[in-house]
Amino acid sequence: MAKEEIILEQRKKKRDAPLLTAGINEIICELMRDGRISREEKLIGNTDVVSCDRVRTLILKEEGSCEKRQRRLALANERWYKGKVTSSTLLEFGIPAIMHSRADLYQSYHCRYYGSSQRLSFSSLDHCSVLNRTPPSLIQEIILVDDFSSDPEDCQLLTKIQKVKCLRNTRREGLIRSRVRGAEVATADILTFLDSHCEVNSEWLQPMLQRVKEDYTRVVSPIIDVISLDNFAYLAASADLRGGFDWSLHFKWEQIPIEQKMSRTDPTQSIRTPVIAGGIFVIDKSWFNHLGKYDTQMDIWGGENFELSFRVWMCGGSLEIVPCSRVGHVFRKRHPYDFPEGNALTYIKNTKRTAEVWMDEYKQYYYEARPSAIGKSFGSVADRVEQRRKLNCKSFQWYLENVYPELKVPEKELIPGIIKQGGNCLESRAQDITGSMLAGMGVCKGTVNNPPVTQEWVFSDPLIRQQDKCLSITSFSTGSQITLEACNQKDGRQKWKMKGGFIQHFVSGLCLENQSGRVVTNPCQADVPGQQWELLQAT
To answer: Which of 108, 131, 159 is the last residue of a domain?
Structure first.
């Protein structure tokens, strides 16, 4: 058994081990439920309360050192677990709290970390804020990747700081390959990826680390706040957002679905997200390696977050945004570096590789939304397809149904027509003695624009529809009879696709065949005339 497999096996055994899950956020909610904190109670202490609907930010006015504040937080935690905490005690120790105006409850953004054995490697980050705002025991190393910058001395000078390491590329590699290089030399069990133009906030790491410790297949991201490019002002982002995208694979922030929002009794609860922005996340190193790291044939920047997100979800993991963790990010108006093939072509190449490997038959909607990608070179994806096969990953249809049902498949104008062979047409027949409506062949009647109802079909991929009935196999074996049943998009027996002149069943791989007026499924053979079909649509 390979080293990575042994480590993952150990992680699986630990995943179900009981963990202490109470934290200050649960404490405050519990105090409210018990009536020990009233909704009208005024906060006291050294914390200004700002409406999260308006700004969602905290301004701490605490005097003294950061170490002093951490000691006070630790003491507050200790008193709670000894049963000595009251509402005023929590606030006395300067624990950040806000009034959540919509949920109308007190919420703490301090999430306790329940272990000190996990040490992390960091790659591509603002090392100063990480060192200043992270418990030293949690930092194994900080790895800076110098992507062949014009001044090689910059990175080396930073290695004078404790725990900082520098890797310099011998040529321009871009974000994707640079991250892989940093991850390969990292020695810690957990990897934290950060962009260099970030500033981490207080207690940013512990909540994310806790989630990964509970389940090593989780990939977690913080709420990403905005640091102004103009004056470096820190602007807090909403905690009601998750990552989404459209069919062109354009990332966007979107509101949490209303059903998910209504079920959230605690605003500090982690948020399931279909995709992550990609710049900032925490992942178990063995899990990262097991999944295949990044696609290193992608260039420079762009699209790698979709490829990683699809791979995590479809291959057995999950993605989360942790509201208790906040990291500021400078959103630049343009890239400060060049793309050898241009920004647009590079993004097309990277997203096209993602679509070809992970989106299955749904990649057609990517090409419809981004027609400029058609015909563009994207290199070989054979190794990534093989990686997906070895990991036994789920289909993109599963992803749409279980992870991102809000991404709707574009509806095309459905044009009716006929399905024929020579002078005969596919038609529905009267019910047999068992009550089933059979499909068969009959002499074509009427015209393509005005056929009889029994010979008019609509190919609404992947269904072949006649009014509210759809073409269906009775079994997945050779020689299956074809019937018409009530249409069901999720029924594998009703899924078909056109493949040249064949009408192929999507699941069994067998082809529709006319056997002297009787329609069945058989192995596809190009030399069998009964398997060659012509679809003619009304004009």
So the answer is: 108
- Band (314; pLDDT cuts 50, 70, 90): very high
With H, G, I as helix, E, B as strand and everything else as coil, classify residue 411. Answer: coil
Q: Tokens 């020579």 map to which residue?
A: 422
Q: Are 124 and 278 in contact, with CB atoms under 8 Å apart?
A: no
Measured between its terminal Cα atoms, the distance across the chain in Å is 62
Is there a domain that residue 67 lies in?
A: yes
Burial class (CB in 10 A: 0-12, 13-18, 19+), 356: middle
254 and 233 belong to one structural domain? yes
Q: What is the pTM of this model?
A: 0.62
The helix or strand, by DSSP H or E, that contains position 362, with its residue range, turns out to be none
CA distances from 513 to 448, 484, 497, 523, 525 (A): 22, 16, 14, 9, 10
- Residue showing tokens 């925490």: 282
Number of domain units in the chain = 3
Euclidean distance between CA atoms 363 and 171, whole angstroms: 33
Residue 210 lies in a domain: yes
- State which residues form the domain around 158: 120-402
Torsion of CA 35, 37, 41, 44, to 10 degrees: 160
364 and 498 assigned to the same domain: no
pLDDT in tens, 344-391: 788 899 999 999 999 999 999 999 999 999 999 899 999 999 999 999
Angle at 40 between CA 39 and CA 42, to 5 degrees: 115
**Can you give the pLDDT at residue 378?**
92
Among 348, 369, 402, the domain boundary falls at 402
Q: In 315-381, which ranges are continuous DSSP H helix?
A: 343-358, 363-369
Is 520 domain-assigned? yes
Model confidence over 80-120: pLDDT tens digits? Answer: 333 333 322 222 222 222 222 222 222 333 344 433 335 55
CATH number, domain containing residue 221 = 3.90.550.10
Least confident range from 60-64, 75-79, 374-378: namely 60-64
- Both tokens of residue 227? 């640091």
Give the model confidence (pLDDT) of 118-156 as tens digits. 555 654 445 578 888 899 999 999 999 988 888 888 888
Respond yes or no on whether the N-terminal peptide bond of residue 96 is cis (omega within 30° of 0). Answer: no
Residues 97 and 198 in one domain: no
**What sign has the CA pseudo-torsion 295, 298, 301, 305?**
negative
Q: Residue 526 is part of a domain; what is its CATH number? A: 2.80.10.50
233 with 337, same domain? Answer: yes
> Is 299 or 224 the better-scoring residue by pLDDT?
224
Residue type, 227: I
Any domain includes 302 = yes
